[in-house]
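hiii, so i know i said id send this last week but things got crazy w the move. better late than never?? heres the sequnce for the chain we talked about at the cafe, plus the structure i predicted for it. fair warning i was half asleep when i ran it
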Amino acid sequence: MENAVAEQTPVLILDRKPAPDRSERGTFCTDLPAAADPALVARAASARQALEDEVVILGHHYQKQEVIQFADARGDSYKLAKYAAETGRPYVIFLGVHFMAESADILTGDDVQVILPDMAAGCSMADMAELGQVEEAWAVLQDIAPGRVVPLTYMNSAADIKALTGREGGAICTSSNAQAAMRWGFEQRDKVLFLPDQHLGRNTAAWMGLSLDDCVVWNPHQDQGGLTEDQVARAKVILWRGHCSVHQRFRPEMVDAVRERLPGVKVIVHPECRYDVVSKADVVGSTETIIRTVAESEPGTKWAVGTELNLVTRLGLENPDKTVAFLDRTVCYCATMNRIDLPHLVWVMENLLNGVVVNRISVEPDTARWARVALERMLQIT
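okay and structure toks below
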């Protein structure tokens, strides 16, 4: 796979051509276009220019090229949400998944409307921790270890889980600051409930010098999480039984196979991967770290990348002086992220041009307030 220089900063801002005069807008179609419509790219470009500076389009790194080419900025979920709050634009179109758009709504003012092109674009990991399940788990943990547990919640979670975290004295973390957040957590109390990604939690605990025996997995589908009171009492980190459907696919034998296939290759993976995969990798880091590491490596370097395929493909195109391969030899897109396509992007933009806001993401005020508390704690930690 071929790969030009990737982003050197967390968020890449893309230049735009001057927009036509507002009076030239006319009336735009508001029906969802067919995916095979040959005029889709032209319609998207026309709508984007006509919207001028009323809207900012944010594209997550895992998005496919057909939509991210129209993004004004691209980055990871948290940095894009922060950028949305800094632009001052009245409309935000988020090319990502539901929890990302929620975070943008939480961090922006009431005068900003956040739009998700396809409401079915969710996150399997975020969906593995439902509010009722977490509330029940929290109540049980308070009975077993009252006042001894602090919740740490990964950014890849629903707004109501972030809010619970804020109410119960916890904080949010990203894949790049998880160690700092967990260290902070142990300064508050002697146990951490880490959710919803068990792999990031386990890898973070290991990097901090804890043993795997210090971690237990809470299964929300079993009574008392499938754990005994003694297991909870002895554990330092209680891991929620959740995972990323993309990163969980990678296996240690894939690392061995790519080393045989590409002699001299360096393996770089996301910390949402399994512990046994992370243990075999040369570099482990967040999406931004993966992009930066490959971009800054010497020409001729070979990389096998364990993360979402759209990003790996883009890394190959943007780094033609290196060899960039996908760690898994089979296709591994984020299925829900890929629901954001060109027809839906055209549809929401053309509706907006006709004065209609579709698929607005709006987080209930009290939920947003407590979620913001948890996010602000993260900023204080890091």
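btw The chain has three domains: 12-122+338-363, 126-243, 247-326. thought thatd interest u
miss u guys!!
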